[in-house]
Every structure is written in C-alpha cells, then in structure tokens.
Amino acid sequence: MLKKAFVAVSGLAALAASGGAHALAWYFQSPGSKLAQDIDHLHQYVMWLIIVIFVGVFGFMFYACWAHRKSKGHPAEQFHENTTVEILWTVIPAIILVIIAWPVTKVVIAQKDTSSPDLTIKVTGYQWKWGYDYIKGEGEGISFVSMLATPREQITGDAPKGENYLLEVDHPLVVPVNKKVRVITTAADVIHSWWVPAFGAKQDAIPGFLRDLWFRPEVTGTFRSQCVELCGKEHGFMPIVVQVVSQDDYTKWVAQQKKGGGEDAAKQWQPQELIARGQKTYEGTCAACHGMKGEGNAAIKAPALAGSKTVTGAKEGHIDTVLNGRPGTAMAPFGQQMSDTDIAAVISYERSSWGNKSGIVQPAEVKARRK
Amino acid sequence: MSTIVDTHDHGHGHEHHDHHGPYSGLMRWVTTTNHKDIGTLYLWFAGFMFFVGGLAALGIRLELFHPGLQYLNPDFYNQLVTSHGLIMIFGAIMPAFVGFANWQIPMMIGAPDMAFARLNNWSFWLLPFAATLLIAAYFMPGGAPGTGWTLYSPLSVQQGMGMDFTIFAVHILGMSSILGSINIITTILNLRAPGMTMMKLPMFCWTWLITAYLLVAAMPVLAGAVTMTLTDRHFGTTFFNAAGGGDPVLYQHIFWFFGHPEVYIIALPAFGVISQVIPAFSRKPLFGYASMVYATSAIAILSFIVWAHHMYTVGMPVTGQLFFMYATTLIAVPTGVKVFNWVATMWKGSLTFETPMLWACGFLFMFTLGGFTGLVLALVPIDIQLHDTYYVVAHFHYVMVAGAMFAAFAGIYFWLPKWIGRMYNETLGQWHFWLTLIFFNMIFFVQHFLGMAGMPRRIPDYPLIFQTWNEISSIGALGFALTQLLFLYNLFTTISRGEKAPQMPWEGADSLDWTHLPTPAPYHTFETQPVVK
Q1: Nearest CB partner across the interface for B387, out of A20, A26, A202
Q2: I need a labelling partner for B154 at 20 to 30 A (CA). Which of A227, A246, B12, B177 fits?
Q3: A119-260: which CATH number, 2.60.40.420, 3.30.70.1150, 1.10.357.10, 3.40.50.2300?
Q4: Which residue of B has its CA nearest to A202?
C-alpha cells in the first residue's frame, strides 16, 4: 500500500524532473536481494505505524489548538491527572513496540548469518580506495584494487560531470548472481565502511580486525555506493561498484583475470608508455596528498615530490619508500596493493615530472627490491 | 500579594546599605558570583557560539549547494564539520541551558542564589578558554581536526596539533559542566524554600536535577576517551591500535557511553522549559506531574544502556544488536508519556499563542518527528541501511535544533520579561518562529530523502542524483541564518528600548519567580525564603 503510494509519488517526481538532468532519488535503491527487500518491507511497515500514531497524537493537539483557544472563549479546566489514561498510554506503546520487534528480530538474525557462503571475498579499506581479494570459491586468488575513476577535472568543474560522477571505479567488484557472497572487511589505516544499499549490506572496515557480512544478489547489473565512514580527506571519493553477472559470464571473467592478471614483470617498457601509465596511477593514488603537480601539502605533512631528495636520489631508496612506506608517517606501504608494473610506472612518472630528471625504473627493478 | 511587597522592600533596602555590591564595568562580569549575572554570561556566550557554529554550517551548506568542489578543500570541509558539531553541542546548546538553570532555578525554588557562588563563576569562566582552544586549532599546522565531532580513533591519531587543542578544550568543557552540575544538584537538594517538597518542584528544576546527574556520570567518561586518544597520539600507548593489542572500536564504546546520555543532557532541560511554557499558555496545570518525573528518570536511566545503537555497523554479535535494539526502543515509552502529557495539558485548556507558546508547539511537533525517526533508526536492519547517511543527520537535527534550540527560544521569549523587565516585539517574535520553522524543514526534511537514497554523511561532494535536495537544503540554510539575525534585532531593540513589561505578562505562569518576585527581578532575590504551601 505504502509502497504503491511511494511509487506513485516517486513516479510523479521522476516525471517532473525528467525535463532536467536527473530524476529525484528519494527512497531506497530498488532491492537487488531478498534481504534488502525485507528491510524495505520492514521500513514501510514501521513508517505506516508511525504515520498513524503521529496523525492520531497531533490530531488531538491541533484539535485543542483550534477548539480550546482563549479567543474562542474556552474556559481552562483544571484537571491534571487521570491514572487510567496514564497507565493506558504507557502500556499501549509498549505493546506496539513488541509488535514491531517481532518481525525485526527475524531479519536481524538472518542478516547476521554469514555461514556456508559460495564465495568469500576480503575487502580492505585504504585511504582512499578499496582492495578486493577473492579468498575462497570460484575465482580464488584474484586480487585487485578499486579506485575512483572520475577524472579530477570533473570534480574541480573543469569538465562536465558524467552520469556516474563519483560512483565509478577502475575495477569493480564482480560477483555471480544467485550465489551467497560473504564479505570479510578490514582496513589498513583508519576505519572505513563498505556498503551496497541494493543488497542491504553495510559493515565497517576496521584496521586490525576482521568483520563480515553477506549478500545474495538476485538480479544482474551494476550496483553503486560510497564509503560511509569518515576516513579523512578523500572520504567522499572512494566509491564501491559491484557488478553482478551471470554464472557463465563470471566463469569467463575469472578465466580472463587468471590469464591477464599477472603482468610480466620482466617486460622492458618504453619510457613514454611507463610515464603515461604512471601519471594515471599517480593522479589516482598519490596526488591526494602529494598534489597534482608534486607540490606536496604542508598541512598534512606530505612532502613535495618536485625536487625531493628521495625522488631525485638513488632509485633503490625511491622504490623502497613506495613499496614499504615510511613508518611513523602517513606514507603507506603500497607493495601489497600495487603490481610491480604500476609501482615502476608511478616512480618513473615522479622521476620524470615537475622538473625532476632522474630516469625511469623498470618493473624488474621493483621486483628485485621486494622483501 | 503581601509577599511581593515584602520582597520589594528587601530589594530597595539592599541597594541603600549595600557596601559590597558588584564592581562596575568589565570587572562586574569577571568577578561576579551572582546567579543572574552568571546566567546572563552563559546565555551571551551560548548565543555567540551559536552564530560561530552557524557560520561553520553555512560553509558546509555552501560547498554542498552544487556537486563538485567549488569553495572548500575536503580537508577544511572536514574541519568545519567537526567544529560545527563540537561548537553547537558544547558551546551553544549546553551553555544555553546552564544559563537558564542559573537564572531560573534559584528563583523557582525560592533560593537567594546558587549553592556555590564562586564555583559558579569558575564554571562559566572556564568556557571562553575552552572555546579559544577549539577555534585556535584552526591556526595550528594541519588545522583543526577533520574527524567529525565524534573524534573516532585511529583517524584522530592521524590529525595535527589541532587535535591536541581540541582534546584539552573537551577536558575544560567537561570540567565546567561537572562543576556546574554539582552546583545545580546541591542547590536543588538543599536550598529549596520551606514547604517546597521534591514533588512540588517546578518541572524545569526536576529535569535539570536529573540532567546534572547525567552530566556528572557521563562527562568523566568522555574525558577518559579523549585522554586515551592523547596518550595514543603522544605517549606510545595503543588503547585503540590493534597493532599494540588495542581496539579502535573500544573508543566508540567509551565515546558513546558518554554520547548517548549526552543526547538527553541536551534534551531533558529542553523538556523542562517546554513543561513550564505549555501549562502557562494553556492556563492549566501540567498534566501528569508525577508521571513526568518518573518518565524523565526512566529516560535518564535507560540512556546509559543504549549506547551501542550508534554502532550497529561495527560488527557486534547478534545478541548485542538485539539487546541494544530492544533497550533503545524502550525509550519510546517514557518519551511517549511526556508527549502525551504535554498534549493532555493543552487539552481543554484556554490556549493563547504568544511567541513562547508557538516555539513550544513547534518543539512538540518537530521533536516528536525526530523521535519517530529515532525509532526507525533503533531497528537494526533499517539502521544498517541508514547508518552514516543523511537520514541520521536529519534525525539528530530534528532532536537538536527543533528540540533543544526551539525550547531555548521558547525559554528566552518566556523569561526575557522577567529578566530585563521589557517586552520583546510580539510580531517580530512570531515572524522569527514561523520563518525558522519553514527554513528548518527546508534544510532538514529533505535530508531524510537524501539519506534513504544513499547519500553518506560528511562528504564534501556528491553524485548528481542528490543535487536537487542539496540545493533546497542550502537555500533553506541561508534563510535560516538570516532569520536568526531577525532574532538578534528583536533582542537588541528589546534590551535598548522595549516596552516595559507588566508584572505578570503571562496569565498562566505559576512558579515562584512569577508569583513572588517583581518584574524585572531585582539583583538579589529571596534573601528571606518564601514559604510554599
């Protein structure tokens, strides 16, 4: 009933807004799993109760405001207690709460049941991107980092904003439809929170701890969301995108990842190729702190890379810094998140930009410095 | 009536042979031990901080007017979010109600002053130093903390020196609150006029008594949480760092063990003000006085066992989630009792709607709406969808702004004549109310939609589907801010050239301050305590 009313209103809103660029989003994303559907139903059920109570209680208030005014000559009666009424309006709300609690409890228990999943994926929150590791089930061993794909120019207003502004990533999480997916969350630095509204799935990612949630997507498609726990400067810029595909497509995707996933670290790259690739990585990963032009950010103690001793010094020191981070500072270790090729690319870019001329680094050199 | 004349004589007599009267000029305010002066200081301080916190909010709404980053960088945006919360809660709302307590409690219970007059002076004068630290954080390397007012670890460990300033500010604010609370508890328990039994206390004093106990119990917990953050930052402890055997979620448990009572620390005095205003303008005694006292106590006790409903997404075991859910929904029962009692007080009264009553009705209606969204958020599965979205932002602003702030305005318009002996401009007061109500809903009602559609809190930029609501919200914020200037204008003109207030501006008011004291109340009142029958 309420749902129908909601749909009718949102339809009108969409119609009204269709002349403009975007429809008004004002209710939950349409559910992509039974759990999300159940939550949606609970919400409607509770909202109905609330609306009825609200109208009832304030019906009395507005009636009094209208009928019991001094200007209408209403005399003030002096009653000030009535035990029966007072007991009634203590007991009845308590009963209503029990009526609400019953169906809700069932959903809480279902939501917490992460047992016997078909696929287990570890999600790691980093400032400011997500790491995905397929740790059990089909696709085991696949591992990648997913970060914002919206170009900086769109954010700063130098380019028109695309349809999925701030909701697009370079590597979405891919899962098969109708399979129970268990997600284990953790984080590398501060607390993040992983959320896919269409699956009713939200869980904080806490550094040093493992927590889990589950979802079973029932429709294929792309589902979008964002990090929902304030995690520092770029909190608003680490979206979550999940692609739900058919079992066949999933098998194909896994095969493709297994084949193309491991890039050949022995490959010798042309400097321009490496630098071009490094620029992308730099702007996505490093620029948030070190600046688009390598100028650094004194406010958060991120040093300038233009003319930096590390960047213009020996390659080994530069590689070690990116691989292992700088303990005691905000510089994180990137060795686990990035491939040899990506690290070589970003180092080459840094060493060849903003006046730095200290040569490029090949993936093999990065590989040699690991461990 | 004879009592009134009696007090008059006392006031005059006092002026004549007063050999240790207040200093004049600035020193009067620095050295004052008079509860009325200190109440005034609290209220001006709160008013000032209300506008400072409001500026931060305007910065936030300006950046959110359109998608994209236009005016603020994300770092500074996060700092504004943090300051807005801390300043509004600790700098504006709490001091405002302590101001009311200072002015009203002695006059309502027939006491000559607060129990600890010098302590009272110190409680206030700690505040400007705390506020200075909070704001000075902006000028430190790295700026103010960008963690949100909850100061969650480990994000708080990453912050610059501004974080340490904020921690010390919180310490000082906590100290001020605890000292003020001790004073309020002692005053109410010991300085009541003969014959004023506990069950004859005006409801405002009851709610403040209970609030003071909450403060004494909760503020040290906050001090502990931020002190642990401080030692984690500088002295090598690892309370909140898993690498050293700590747990970041421990911080949240400690913080919210303070944080949830804090919600009622803010709400209960507001309930108290409303419980004075509604009977006065209904010309009818408060309905269910005893059940009001019990309900307030029940809310206070429950507030200590519901804290983890702020943390449903940290990954608690299912039994934990269920316990905190049941306990939280239980709060709806005593809160419901209060709302029903207020409506029953109005029922068959003889109602008039001067400005204080408008704010009280606005409070009743809007606060209940915030209470209902609180019930929605108490339910674990629904909260999982709404946690850390704008729905939560909308919810707590209905409680903090339409709850606490509306009640504060009701109190100011209600008691201003008693305090300064002049009447505010009724027309302007009513405009202030209606415009605030409209703009408030423009800002916050639409944020329910934003939250349900999935907009996270504390983000400086957002996907395009959220644009329309954010535009409405930002326009509402501008209107809201301008409307408060109207209040300032009304306030200043009232103080400088307002009409003289009659002895009894409100027919239905029946506490000692109205029945036994002249308007305006003289500097010293109740040097001889009245006898209450």
Answers
A1: A202
A2: B177
A3: 2.60.40.420
A4: B384
